[in-house]
Amino acid sequence: MPPPRSTTKVRTHPLGDAALLAELGTRLDTALNTRAIALANALKRRRDVRQAVAGYASVTVHFDPDQTTHDALAAAIQRLASKRPPMAEPGRLHRIPVVYDGPDLEAVAAVLGLIPAQIAAIHSKPIYRVFLVGFVPGWAYLGPLPEELELPRRHVPRTQVPAGSVAIAGRQSGIYPLPTPGGWHLIGRTPVKLFLPDADPPCLFRAGDRVKFFASRA
Amino acid sequence: MKEVLRVKKPGVLTTVQDLGRPHAIAAGVPPGGAMDRFAHRAANLLVANDETAATLECTLSGPELVALEPCIIAVTGADLDPRVNGEPEPTWTGLFLSQGDELSFAGRRHGGRAYIAVAGGIAADKWLGSMSTNLMTKRGGMHGRQLLSGDVISAAIEAHAPAISGRHLAPNLRPDYNDHTLHAIAGPHIRRLGADGRKQLFSSEYRISRDADRMGYRLEGPKLDASGDELLSFGLAAGALQVPRSGQPILLMADHQTAGGYPVVATVASAAMPVAAQLLPGDILTFAEVSLESARKLRADQRAALDSLKSWRSVR
């Protein structure tokens, strides 16, 4: 089924004199994200655009200020957004093994009134969408996480989270691609490499891809 | 490739940088590149390189380099008091080094980052289209790390003509690094500050905290209240001024995180980023609101200053 024709106006804001933020909405919504990815892909083909990055419900456009202006690009975005977006291809499906033995698993289970095995079962049930790739190399925001597992971030972020840690926060899940500081709850780990420095693009997941976790022994 | 310089002492943090990998942000990889693009471009043009060639970015202190071959170099950006064989040499000027000559730096006089260009450009590891060093992923530049004693720097291409030393960028065409006014354009979430908060942002002094590196600078000063509904994460750009819940703003620099969900209340104009790049912990800065049109004009002025070095080249 083709995505519905959009009626909402895209709001554009300067992000300096060489970038702009085009907001399609403010809700965590698969349809909005699909439109953002389609808009980013259309913008990438323009000569005056250096890069276009889809957010959850927005596109950040980096442009060459010697070739275009904010206003000209904003008008072009408005035209592109009012067109029926091309039918979105179903994103690639990644099956990711997870050992559910994260350092926060017991605590998360206790707070939610569940047992660790239930956390694993609920977390590995849905097919998640890659809403956004970014933050650090290879990081992907996956969602939506089932409501039963919704928790705010940790009060005190860890200064170092091991690469491969599978984590949850809010209505999102993610996998730490590199050892970095992090404030999400660590419920498991995976041997799958998310950051692929010798590939281009150097990451496993792309915006719009789908991810299915499955419990694994080791 | 020809070996041109040997690193005798590396300095505090000297890395290979070019204009970065803007394309890679879609994979979450920081765009990177020289923090002070004006100084980087000027250094290259002074030795008749393409502006995109790699240079050395020297933070806080300069390295000690020995010429293995006769070569032309230029030192721009921060004034770290460059010396050749102990004798003072001008910055923003093409310098000739004979084989065995030693480039050193006597000490920081102003600014935080100096750039050294070598005629022919510096040869280094290329990652995702750029030779810029990314220390987090250990990729690009000198094997993904800062320079170390004993490293040998090669020129990427043999300088096509013996570049003439003594080429110079006039002082009035250089950025005024002593004026710490950062021109900035109102950001997507400026309205969250309200009228008073906006006035505060564009009239208060902020100090660079010790938490300041190539990723960004955490600023100390009057707290800003940009609270409101939680934002969905979106793509970021260098120069963006984020306001986390603590109210202490963070100015994103070249190696910034590529996405985030904190409100962005302003973005420093590209023409003001060279000055921002020269700031160090303890330095005081102010933000001055400018229109997009003014930011374009400032950018055009800088472009013209750089182009004046290019026309010099075509005359030759």
Describe the overall structure.
The complex is a heterodimer of chains A (218) and B (316). The model of chain A has no long low-confidence stretch (mean pLDDT 92). Chain A folds into 2 domains: 11-82, Gyrase A, domain 2 (2-Layer Sandwich), CATH 3.30.1360; 93-215, Cyclophilin. Chain A has 218 residues and is α+β, with helices and mostly antiparallel strands. In chain A, a hairpin with a 3-residue loop joins strand 3 (49-54) and strand 4 (58-63). In chain A, 20% of the residues lie in helices and 30% in strands. Chain A is elongated and about 55 Å long. In chain A, the strands form 4 sheets. Chain A has a 4-stranded antiparallel beta sheet with strand order 1-2-4-3, covered by helices on one side. Chain A has a 4-stranded mixed beta sheet with strand order 5-13-6-7. The longest helix of chain A is centred in the N-terminal third of the chain and has 15 residues, at 30-44. Chain A starts with 10 loop residues before the first strand and ends with a strand. With 316 residues, chain B is an alpha+beta fold. Chain B folds into 2 domains: 2-173, no CATH class; 181-299, Beta Barrel (Cyclophilin), CATH 2.40.100.10. Chain B has 4 helices and 20 strands. In chain B, strand 6 (82-84) and strand 7 form a beta hairpin. The longest helix of chain B has 24 residues, at 292-315. Chain B is globular.
User: Roughly what is the average pLDDT of chain A, rounded to an integer?
Assistant: 92
Structural class, from helix and strand content of chain A? alpha+beta
Number of strands of chain B: 20
Write down the overall mean pLDDT of chain B: 95
CATH uppermost class of the largest domain in chain A:
Mainly Beta
Number of alpha- plus pi-helical segments of chain B: 4
Classify the secondary structure makeup of chain B into a structural class.
alpha+beta
CATH architecture of the largest domain in chain A: Beta Barrel
* Tally of separate domains of chain B: 2
Low-pLDDT windows of residues of chain A: none
- Main pleated sheet of chain A: 4 strands, antiparallel
Order of helices and strands of chain B: EEHEEEEEEEEEEHEEEEEEEHEH
**Can you tell me the overall shape of chain B?**
globular
Fraction in helix of chain A: 10-25%
Shape of chain A: elongated
CATH-wise, what's the superfamily of the largest domain in chain A? Cyclophilin-like
The number of helical runs of chain A is 4
